[in-house]
């Protein structure tokens, strides 16, 4: 097994964080669109298996459309 350098490990970690952040930002935009159309309940049920995204959608809908 080839051992990766600390720099390689850090670059991969940063890459994963960036992908996660981009995914969450995209999801929040989709959530806002669904909320605006009254689809928050559908959105929650579709994403119940993804609890982090579900929580983000809940808080985003609440913050954006109180």
Descriptive account of the structure:
By secondary structure, this protein is an all-alpha fold. It has one domain. The protein is built from 3 helices and no strands. The protein has helices at 6-36, 40-46, 51-64. α1 crosses α3. It starts with 5 loop residues before the first helix and ends with a helix. The model has no long low-confidence stretch (mean pLDDT 70).
Concise summary:
With 66 residues, this protein is mostly helical. Helices cover 79% and strands 0% of the residues.
Q: What characteristics describe this protein?
A:
66 residues; mainly alpha; 3 helices; single chain; 79% helix; rod-shaped
How many distinct beta strands? 0
String of helices and strands: HHH
Mean pLDDT: 70
Biggest sheet character = none
Shape: rod-shaped
Task: Please give the structural blueprint.
Elements: H1 6-36, H2 40-46, H3 51-64
Helix pairs in contact: 1-3
């Amino acid at each position: 097994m080839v051992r990766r350098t600390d720099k390689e490990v850090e670059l991969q970690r940063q890459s994963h964080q960036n992908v996660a952040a981009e995914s969450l930002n995209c999801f929040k935009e989709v959530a806002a669109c669904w909320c605006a159309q009254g689809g928050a309940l559908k959105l929650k049920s579709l994403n119940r298996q993804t609890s982090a995204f579900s929580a983000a959608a809940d808080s985003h809908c609440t913050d954006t459309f109180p």
